[in-house]
């Protein structure tokens, strides 16, 4: 018989039932978290006030994009990695292009929060920012799961790095 | 000349701030109107959100990086929140801000 968290023998236990294990495998939970975060970060694209002046076509494209993200929850991924050294392989075999004309960018991929902007908003050319996927191909705006372990931390870049970036130390 | 492929440091900071502003005020435009905004308030927030987009994509020639300034950029023409609303936090800069009507604020934090 199931016991509630208020039962005497559970008084020092977490609220969820650790005896039976967490409700989701770690990877699945991580994927659901990534999906939720992506939908949250792109909510403006479907907002009635249209704060970024999207065209009707762009709104429709973003809706399709977001739906594909949501559908990732139904995929039974078997190739998702959590480790820092493994995260480069976390493309999960699913590529979801951004709507045409849009980019997802950051100060340094994976270390500072992503922002979404129109490609026409990109205002500098940085020869050090040739973005590739982990296979070395040119980045085409597809999604990739980037899974940071809990002990990741950021620190300022060494002197001489010409852009004011931050990066995550590799423990190796 | 190669096509632009990145955001400048300053523009990135503006986009990041705009993204945060849109995130925090999304509920003001939700069809179910959970905070029971008046039509005028919804319009005012739409203008506020649009103003942030204009800041992020607008002329940055008068803005300067300043690591002690809010958003680490000085010179931002901050739009005013609609009358009667405020962002509040437990300890400024440390805990996430929340959007609230000023009428729900109490006077315990003297």
Walk me through this protein's architecture.
- The complex is a heterodimer of chains A (172) and B (110).
- With 172 residues, chain A is of the alpha+beta class.
- Chain A has one domain.
- Helix content of chain A is 19%, strand content 8%.
- The N terminus and C terminus of chain A are likely disordered.
- In chain B, the strands form two sheets. A two-stranded antiparallel ribbon of chain B has the order 1-2. A two-stranded antiparallel sheet of chain B has the order 3-4.
- In chain B, a hairpin with a 7-residue loop joins strand 1 and strand 2.
- Chains A and B meet through strand 2 of A and helix 1 and helix 2 of B.
What's this model, at a glance?
The complex is a heterodimer of chains A (about 170) and B (about 110). Chain A is built from two helices and four strands; from the N terminus they run H-H-E-E-E-E. By secondary structure, chain A is α+β, with helices and mostly antiparallel strands.
Write the layout of secondary structure elements.
The complex is a heterodimer of chains A (172) and B (110).
Chain A: H1 26-41, H2 56-71, E1 102-105, E2 115-118, E3 154-156, E4 166-168
Antiparallel strand pairs in A: 1-2, 3-4
Chain B: H1 9-25, H2 39-57, E1 64-65, E2 73-74, E3 85-88, E4 98-101
Antiparallel strand pairs in B: 1-2, 3-4
Helix pairs in contact in B: 1-2
